[in-house]
């Protein structure tokens, strides 16, 4: 798997937001608090805050826990192949939105204090038919041992205010002035985060203060929202209004992880909670779970105060926050991701021609069966999936005559090597946009005759202030390191030349 998860070290959140004894979420009375523990406590602190603000999130956590416990009971050791139940139960990702490069750079400083680094570039502007004018990265641990201790991630989106497809010059100017006038993070919080980076953590009292300030930064503001300005932005994009029409940022959603997202979806629906129309990402099928599947309950109406044009303050409602849940699968190689993109296009093509009532998931499962191996071994030998390899039975190694190397498939079949899947720790632009879109009240407006502002990983890295890691490089390095160790232990070179799918005999329909 992608890490060697510890059992519950990240802090096990209860349904009420409390933390079970012995978890990473309890306060430390004295001494030095390391960054991983800061991160674990931060995740639990945000979960407590969000559970108080969005009670349906507590229901989602309770149902997620029940799903995971039942899945482990039904599947035994295989249930934890992509993460121990301790890690999965503690695992969360959050999502926030900011309005400017300055705010994004401050986010990077704050999260660095918790050992969370920017990984991946996501452009949601073209990943959805709706108006979603943001580019994003995710802050998370990158080292295997840090992921094992606590894998908390925060998907962070930045408004692209100079993209003329969405904002005219006057709106851009007012947006940028509005954002520049607010303060999301106090100087004290940023200074403490910088210290945590420099010192690898903080003394207990300072750790408590950083957690207090950082958590408060993401609480829903009670300040009145200027109605006319918010409505102007909402007509363009509900996402833009949620970023640039309010006085502060907030947690947009907080996401537990489940081992069976289809079961979770059914259980939430049975409780009368309205879910989005379908699960985003790869389909559920009989083969290996890959990448990431996500779903959410629909955004709920929350009371907010508004300042009207005449200066009066009124009460109204907004629907911008929702409860998301995820099921993580196996990371794919670059070739595997290319194939995934091709299959997604094929699903769209077939769905357009399918009889009315056919679901995307049904079509996708059919396409998957035709084009993907149905076992993990098939993914490995086809060069599509990413794995960490370790020596199983060295006596089973028989170098191929004359070459001194052994094909990966032979080593796996003989048991000389064991393949452990690397967990996909990141996100999918189309799925993220799909979640956003499913929770919008309308599609907003965009003028595709205008040119969009170009963004890529390098340009967003300049905004963040440090290089954003390419997740493909991180996964490939894990696999390469494990192969080098295995070759040294076996005394043989491992031939990882991809085997064509037609020769694996793993991709036949079940």
From TrEMBL:
Residues 1-31 are annotated as: Disordered. Its EC number is 1.13.11.93. It comes from the Bacteria. Gene3D superfamilies: Uncharacterised protein PF07063, DUF1338. PANTHER family: 2-OXOADIPATE DIOXYGENASE_DECARBOXYLASE, PTHR39479. Belongs to the 2-oxoadipate dioxygenase/decarboxylase family. This is 2-oxoadipate dioxygenase/decarboxylase. It comes from Microlunatus sagamiharensis.
């Amino acid at each position: 798997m992608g890490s060697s998860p510890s059992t519950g070290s990240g802090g096990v959140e209860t349904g009420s937001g409390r933390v079970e004894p012995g978890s990473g979420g309890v306060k430390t009375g004295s001494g030095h608090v390391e960054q991983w523990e800061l991160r674990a406590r931060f995740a639990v602190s945000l979960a407590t805050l969000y559970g108080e603000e969005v009670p349906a999130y507590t229901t989602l956590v309770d149902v997620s826990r029940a799903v995971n416990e039942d899945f482990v009971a039904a599947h035994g050791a295989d249930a934890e192949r992509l993460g121990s139940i301790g890690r999965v139960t503690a695992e969360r990702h959050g999502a926030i939105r900011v309005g400017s490069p300055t705010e994004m750079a401050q986010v990077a400083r704050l999260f660095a204090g918790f050992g969370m680094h920017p990984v991946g570039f996501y452009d949601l502007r073209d990943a959805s038919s709706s108006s979603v004018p943001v580019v994003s990265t995710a802050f998370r641990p990158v080292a295997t041992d840090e992921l094992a201790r606590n894998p908390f991630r925060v998907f962070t989106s930045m408004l692209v205010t100079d993209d003329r497809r969405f904002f005219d010059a006057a709106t851009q100017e007012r947006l940028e002035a509005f954002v520049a006038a607010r303060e999301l993070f106090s100087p004290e919080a940023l200074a403490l985060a910088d210290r945590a980076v420099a010192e690898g953590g903080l003394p207990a009292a300072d750790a408590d203060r950083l957690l207090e300030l950082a958590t408060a930064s993401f609480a829903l503001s009670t300040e009145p929202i200027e109605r006319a300005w918010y409505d102007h932005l909402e007509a363009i994009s509900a996402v833009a209004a949620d970023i640039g029409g309010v006085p502060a940022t907030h947690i947009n959603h907080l996401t537990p992880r489940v081992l069976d997202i289809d079961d979770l979806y059914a259980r939430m629906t049975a409780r009368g909670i309205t879910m989005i129309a379908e699960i985003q990402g790869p389909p559920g099928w009989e083969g290996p779970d890959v990448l990431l599947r996500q779903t959410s309950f629909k955004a709920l109406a929350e009371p907010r105060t508004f300042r009207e044009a005449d200066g009066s303050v009124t009460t109204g409602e907004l629907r911008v926050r929702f409860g998301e849940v995820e099921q993580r699968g196996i990371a794919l190689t670059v070739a595997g991701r290319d194939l995934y993109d091709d299959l997604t296009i094929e699903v769209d093509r077939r769905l357009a021609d399918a009889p009315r009532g056919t679901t995307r998931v049904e079509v996708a499962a059919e396409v998957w069966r035709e084009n993907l191996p149905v076992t993990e071994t098939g993914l490995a030998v086809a060069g599509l999936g990413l794995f960490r390899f370790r020596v199983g039975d060295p006596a089973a190694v028989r170098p191929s005559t004359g070459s001194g190397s052994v094909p990966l498939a032979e080593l796996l079949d003989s048991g000389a090597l064991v393949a452990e899947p690397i967990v996909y720790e990141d996100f999918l632009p189309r799925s993220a946009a799909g979640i956003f879109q499913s929770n919008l009240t309308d599609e907003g407006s965009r003028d595709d005759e205008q040119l969009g502002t170009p963004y890529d990983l390098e340009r967003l890295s300049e905004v963040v202030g440090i290089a954003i890691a390419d997740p493909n490089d991180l996964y490939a390095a894990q696999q390469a390191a494990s192969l080098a160790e295995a070759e040294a232990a076996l005394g043989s070179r491992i031939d990882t030349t991809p085997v064509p799918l037609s020769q694996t005999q793993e991709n036949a329909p079940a």
